[in-house]
Amino acid sequence: MTTVSAPRIEHHREPLGIGEARPRMSWTLDDAPEGWQQRAYAITLTRAAGGETVEVVSSEQVLVPWPSRALDSRERVGVRVAVQGIDGTWSASSPPTWLETGLLHPADWSAGPIGLDLDEDPESDARRATLVRSTFRIDGPIAHARLYATAHGLYDAEINGMRVGSDTLSPGWTVYRERLRYYTYDVTTLLGEGDNAIGAWLGDGWYRGRLGWRGGHRNIFGSDLSFLGQLEITYADGRRETVATDDTWRATLSPILRSGIYDGEDYDARQELPGWSTAAFDDTAWLPVSVRDRDPHTLVAPTGPPVRVTEEITPVAVLTSPHGARILDFGQNLVGRVRIRVTGQRGTTVTLRTAEVLQEGELYTRPLRSARSSDAYTLAGHPDGEEWEPRFTFHGFRYAEVAGWPGDLDADVAAGALTARVLHTDLERTGWFACSDPLVEQLHRNVVWGMRGNFVDIPTDCPQRDERVGWTGDIQVFGPTASTLFDVSGMLSGWLRDVEAEQLPDGTVPWFVPVIPSHKVWSPIRPGAAWGDVATLLPWTLYQRFGDEGVLAAQFDSARRWVDRIDAAAGPDRLWDEGFQLGDWLDPAAPPQDPADARTDRYLVATAYFARSARVVADMAVALGREADAERYGILAAEVAAAFRAAHVNPDGTMSSDAQTAYALAIVFDLLADEAQRAAAGARLADLVHAAGNRIATGFVGTPLVCDALTLTGHTAAAYALLQEQGCPSWLYQVVQGATTIWERWDALLPDGSVNPGTMTSFNHYALGAVADWMHRRVAGLAPAAPGYRRIRFAPRPGGGLTHAAAVQLTPTGKPRSPGASSRTHSSSISSSRSARPQSSTSPVSRPKNSDTARTPERCASDDRGHATAGHPVVDRRTTSSGRKRTRRS
After folding, report:
1. Is 631 a catalytic residue?
2. 548-568 tens-digit pLDDT
3. Residue 744 catalytic?
4. How many whole angstroms separate alpha carbon 142 and alpha carbon 218?
5. CATH architecture of 111-300
């Protein structure tokens, strides 16, 4: 009997407080008989005003349209789905999914941002974090209560002494002038009849904290620290009461002495105010708040999950450095914070300094540049001990130096007193990979950990130094891998709205989004190939992987304007051969201080991307039914490809830049004239790989493409040789050097064990891990053959001495496995559950000490380059049909 999953609402894992008035729905089918096909579906809606069932004749099951009237603000609706096969038999209805909208209209907001006015230096590193609070009375039984909250800065809300929600670093980082995200919390169980209290911690965060390298800037988006909260209480008798931030609230300084994204947090427990968020607390000594401004039109509901703590890791060793420092080794380069449980005398200060690597046995902080990356806790002296974790910061680290510990550090570590709390955007895991080569498996683990550490509300470039910004080129090249490893559909579609918001009127896409002031290299904003192409290629990737035509519709104008901007820069000859370019960034042959000095000509890269983006915009237009645009950009793409060949491809298939990236671009972007030229280019690429001793010779641009280019031209053995090489530079060089994440530079750690002398050296940076996409599609052989995996291509390419390789993919239509996949391939220990987890002292995930094998086998990406070919089976997951619908009401 065919069974239907509970429907998923848009891309939400938890559809509470959604911002879509007409949300789309998806579902998967289980236990369907061989050859079963869906003919129709029926959606049953349970609303306060009554129920209705809508039948639609269609085989679609991914992001189908909302079948009824638009939702109102705060509306709660149950959704169930049943499906009909072509034999006319209906399945049973699915379990229900309950969705609830947030505040959909500006007029729904009565709250304003409030905070404490302080006489402080706006440029100071040590501005105090604050607390705000208010009390209210509940005069009868309540049915439910919701808190809608956001901030200028970061917030943690409390009600009656209890933490609200499990998110952290909220409301995250958006283009604040255009879009400030708010979150919705079900706080029903936190309230009771009688007197109640609500409050919030406030910290600088991205909004007014220090951002940018070479010293950075403060107050980029504003100088106020403000909380905006609207608590709505619905009584059992139907009344609704609102407690909103206004001028009746009170504020004071918090025990957080200073807090910053780069610099860490200092906390003095002696200044704690026990019970401050309870109704019994006396706040007469607190100060009045000031009410600030916020246009409610800019308040938006999230499209993806928030940042959460998803895992806890205990140290694998306690080291003593040559200078006597005590250093914790967590065995894994991770992103998060250290929680401590400590007992000691009042006034004792414990300091934690973090770093990714050691040098000569000491904590090595040079790669952090100006980031202090240090936390300090001053004890209150409670005889029963104290527990603390930084609240408004995060660090990228494997090692933590502990100073001032008042007890026996070794014994306390063994007792679990210091724990690393891993945080990132709480994305759902969707793909896994396993093979017979343990080094390749470790490489894949490194890709997963690198992605987790760099998806902290936005796709960042590194999580440890004074940067951590949303570089557009990095996620452009990594997008296919990201879209297979985790469900990034909601997070990245939301971030693309910020890309469009920051796009200049002439179509130029910034190098990083949100934009922050930076040094003169990045100002003024100039168009750059591969980075600006995120406006075209990332929406297309999301469409290919998740089947979401909506992201194409939302981003088409942005994508079109980017291609038009390149067209204007290129001129009538269709060659983009001038202007500032990063080219094949971080080619391993580039000097440490000039990472754009690559073997492949930067203007060859620019024109290749011009052709690719023009082709993708044409394909987007086809998918959207925009015939005129499809024809226009299709002609443009063909013209640019011809110009590329005339300028950069010799008749014999060799290229003006005789380099791996040049050939990879020409082959994978389909820029060559015919099969003979393609074969010659592939042969030359294989020769270059062999001549280099199978060492990698590509930077950010070439790395995602080089193995595909070899495989597409029949040189699979060369692709495996490149993948499995262990000499420097190579992917497995990093592994054998002990890496547990992907490095920014191929040789971030030199063969002699010293750190690369370049000032830009991160040990956690996902871009060069984009090879995992090829591993999933070609090594394990599982790839989409139609958008959203509606059709799946199984075509493994054995090689490299592997005796087995397998992948499992959670797709919008189900969970296919490549041949040979087993339970070992699919382990979800890193993936969190669909339900929200409280942030507690209990680890949501356990991992044995010093055990790589205990970590989750990863998953890699497939992309639109996979297609059906003779001899390779294609599983057709679905067909198309008309969308006739019939409504019956109950």
Report:
1. no
2. 999 999 999 999 999 999 999
3. yes
4. 43
5. Sandwich (2.60)
